[in-house]
Amino acid sequence: MKRILIMVLHNFFWVPYGWFRLCYYAKHVDKYTEEQRYAMLKDIVKHANKGGRVTIEPHGIENIPKQNGFMLYPNHQGLYDVLALIEVCPNPISVVAKKEVENVPFLKQVFACMKAFSMDREDIKQSLQVIINVTKEVKNGRNYVIFAEGTRSRDKNNILEFKGGSFKCATKAQCPIMPVAIINSYQSFDTNSAKPVTVQVHFLEPIIYEEYKEMKSTEIAQTVHDRIEMVIRENEQK
Question: N or C: which end of the chain has fewer CB within 10 A?
Answer without folding.
Answer: C
